[in-house]
Amino acid sequence: MSKTAPAANARNAYPKGLTTDFRQISPQNLFDYVEYFSVSIRPDAPAPELSCNIASHFLTIDVDEEAVLGGFLKTCDGEKDYADDNKVVVNAVPSVMAHKRKRAKAAARPGEQVAAKVSRR
């Protein structure tokens, strides 16, 4: 099921009929989406422009709905490795940076506080 994106002439025009509201998502998560799906957008774009462009991109994604629903049902039945075997249900290739970020997701970022459990023997 492929949908076409609305015309990109108005950067801040949010697509009509989209039930997902990307305007409620934090700018960091919007940039993560941009990076993961390799969406071309200005790096200094403000959050409203980001959300509009991401919403337009979201409308163009072709999803295999049967695979998604099948995966959901199998996960509900307790087949946890289904998600590992079928990670790609969207016809998009993540960028190299997104792959690296996924690997380092648990790593602390500069300036973050971290906690460590110290046990004495």
UniProtKB/TrEMBL annotation:
Residues 101-121 are annotated as: Disordered. This is Histone deacetylase complex subunit SAP30 Sin3 binding domain-containing protein. Pfam families: SAP30_Sin3_bdg. It comes from Triparma laevis f. inornata. Residues 33-75 form the Histone deacetylase complex subunit SAP30 Sin3 binding domain. Gene3D superfamilies: 6.10.160.20. It comes from the Eukaryota. The lineage of its organism: Eukaryota, Sar, Stramenopiles, Ochrophyta, Bolidophyceae.
